[in-house]
């Protein structure tokens, strides 16, 4: 499904924002490790894209005036896990969801607005407490001035249909024409950040923040495990 999101005119207040610059030095070994990590991440991303069959949305062929906005999933809202009665047990799991990847392209020139196309890859699940074969999931997309303020935040709904005998499905939602106005040509896309997350309860956010998830151990039993949570932008709440 293709959707559109247009940021309010409050973005026009960004007339004086400087371009972001950063400088770093590292040893040869650190450079090699970084390049290897980037190569591994790129390989994983290509594998997921092939699995989801994400199609990049075409944009006119012209050179951008600057970099695209940063785009990422907010860690605390990256997963949706229903637990009946708040019980952290496999038999208490209802519907689940995970945002597994983003693809984004953008275009802008001169003082024109930034236009970005975003594809969001989802994996949905159905646990023992999920009785229906259909579930509507709500998620949000927020456009921010990096580390300063939220310019706009909008909610979207994606629907998951679980065929008989299946408890997992994948889905890709396409958001076309995310439009971010700029006050003048000197305002770079690097000043903005696009965040994505599920509309979760405080309990779900805490579950995610602690890195908890359900996994199958070597003996075949399902158990709750805890992984190190990633430090991320606090983002919208």
Overview of the structural elements:
The chain is mainly beta. The protein has one domain (2-15, 49-226). The protein is built from 2 helices and 11 strands; from the N terminus they run βαββββββββαββ. Strands 1-8-5-4-3 form a 5-stranded mixed sheet. Strands 2-9-6-7 form a 4-stranded mixed sheet, with no helix packed on it. The protein has a two-stranded antiparallel sheet with strand order 10-11. Strand 10 (212-216) and strand 11 (222-226) form a beta hairpin.
Low-confidence segments: 9-27, 51-62, 215-237
Number of domains: 1
Q: Count the strands?
A: 11
What is the strand arrangement across the widest sheet? 1-8-5-4-3
Q: Terminal Cα separation, in Å?
A: 26 Å
Core attributes:
237 residues; four-stranded mixed beta sheet; 41% strand; five-stranded mixed beta sheet
Task: Annotate the secondary structure layout.
Elements: E1 2-6, H1 28-52, E2 70-73, E3 79-83, E4 93-107, E5 114-126, E6 134-145, E7 149-161, E8 168-180, E9 192-198, H2 202-209, E10 212-216, E11 222-226
Parallel strand pairs: 1-8, 2-9
Antiparallel strand pairs: 3-4, 4-5, 5-8, 6-7, 6-9, 10-11
Concise synopsis of the structure shown:
By secondary structure, the protein is mainly beta. It has helices at 28-52, 202-209, and strands spanning 2-6, 70-73, 79-83, 93-107, 114-126, 134-145, 149-161, 168-180, 192-198, 212-216, 222-226.
């Amino acid at each position: 499904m293709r959707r559109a999101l247009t940021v309010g005119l409050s973005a026009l207040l960004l007339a004086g924002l400087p371009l972001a610059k950063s400088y770093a030095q590292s040893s040869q070994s650190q450079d090699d490790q970084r390049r290897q990590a980037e190569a591994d991440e790129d390989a994983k991303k290509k594998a997921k894209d092939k699995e989801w069959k994400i199609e990049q949305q075409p944009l006119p062929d012209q050179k951008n005036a600057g970099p695209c906005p940063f785009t990422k999933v907010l860690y605390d809202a990256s997963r949706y896990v229903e637990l009946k009665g708040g019980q952290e047990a496999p038999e208490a799991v209802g519907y689940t969801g995970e945002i597994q990847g983003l693809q984004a392209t953008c275009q802008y020139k001169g003082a024109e607005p930034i236009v970005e196309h975003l594809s969001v890859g989802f994996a949905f699940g159905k646990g023992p407490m999920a009785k229906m074969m259909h579930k509507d999931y709500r998620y949000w997309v927020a456009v921010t001035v990096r580390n300063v303020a939220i310019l706009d935040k909008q909610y979207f709904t994606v629907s998951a249909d679980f065929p008989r005998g299946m408890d997992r499905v994948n889905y890709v939602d396409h958001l076309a024409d995310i439009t971010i106005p700029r006050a003048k040509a000197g305002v770079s896309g690097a000043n903005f950040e696009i965040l994505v997350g599920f509309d979760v309860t405080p309990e779900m956010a805490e579950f995610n923040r602690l890195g908890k998830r359900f996994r199958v151990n070597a003996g075949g039993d399902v158990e709750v495990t805890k992984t190190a949570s990633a430090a991320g932008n606090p983002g919208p709440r």
